[in-house]
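Task card 7
Instruction: Convert sequence to structure tokens.
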Amino acid sequence: MENLFLYTLGELEGYMGFLMTDKYASHVLRVLLVILSGAPLEKQNKSAMQSKKKEKVTVSGAEKEQERLLEERAVPESFSEALEKVITESVSGIESHYLRTLTTHPLGSPTLQLLLKLELSHFGKSRAKDEKSIIHRLLPDNPIAEGTESAILINGLVYDTIGSRLLEVIIENAPGKVFKAIYGEFFKERMGTLARNEIAAYVVGKILERLGKDDLEEAMRQIVDQIPSLVERGRTGVIKTLIERCVAREIDCSPIKAQLETAYAGSNGFEVTRILKLSEEDGKPRAKHEHSPEKVHGSLLAQTMMTVDGPLGQLVFDSLANLSPELAVQLARDSTASRTLQAALMSKNASVIFRRKMIQQFYGKIGELALDPAASHVIDAIWHGTAGLAFIRERIAEELAENENSLRESFVGRAVWRNWRMDLYKRKRGDWVTQSRYTAGNDGFQSFPESNGDATPPQNHRQGRHLTAIELARQKHAAAKAAQAKDGKKPKKGSQTTSSSGSSKAKSLAAQ
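Output:
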């Protein structure tokens, strides 16, 4: 197999420039480059591997789950040598002005992006000093200043639909010295205005990921002023990235919180429905079901806000908790917005009070929601959301049991039934209650009616199994002996010792 790939590369030698811009061959070349590099076929190289029509590169006979798990592969040393040769030869015979033309070419630019990324990631960022390297051919000037060829190229790529992706690759992979020069010369004073542009905003996002704390604080001050405009235009991707980076760099998010609270203000203060593009007309909740980019980005912004422990995340939690039952159900049934609700129920920053209020909005609708393709995932999230709320978990299970027939007849419903372990609930309810009570945890615990507040299941958790009847009896006997020995009494030989006083009984239960 090693030789077959190398022979294939040998057949293509001398035609690289032509293949980079061919309608079909450019895809073959990209796949070959990824294989030689040992990089994953999916994930990181998804944008470089797919065309506008989202061409799917698959492995014949492989299961989907396995394909998603493809990681970096060990490759022969000859592959690395061949890859370096391809990268060198692909641009060595191309004149500089033609190479710059490739940066905005629909087919040539994705191939050039992949070549540039592999050059800097596989052979070290020191390659930027090599005059024959791709990045040096594209940005030959040192220093990079206004009026130079490098400056003309960068200014041309920022607002170009295709070229901006190449600029993103340069910013993401360039050596620190080159990145700082580009940022200081072209972007430092323009972060706010560039963030408002539909195309340049993606470049701004990549820049934010590389900035240090001081530069990030300055960029935040510029972008925060533009948040009302960004919200109005539906450009929330930059805000999401800004929040993530501020959290990573431990920068106070209060200015972002203040602007978002104002931008999404409604009659009830901050309204998460405005981020999720849900609205009410004629008193009836309505949702836009189309998967518009604005709606997806709004949902992602809300999810990112909830990862921040403090006032910024609390905006979303409070707004969700104050939704009417009708609007909460509509949100759960919306394929895009429901992801925010799932994230809220499973968030480590969600309080017990919020989760209880939110879940109670769905009482009486559980069976109906469990049959909905989107809302069924919310019902699955409620299982995690009832941590510390064991009684509410059983209340939901009762509703699912009442709708058993309809759930079993539905593919979606069967998945919910399985995830909630409802077969165990129907056959051995006591075991289900015991396990559920334990997994629900004790933080803010609400006991089952028959449990009298005892939240400890009769289970040997160290061994991960239930105790047998004889083992339980032995435990009780040992506990009683210990309690009586403490009181100075000797248990009768050969008899099952029991405590006659209320205090001894309490101690025995505590020992269990």
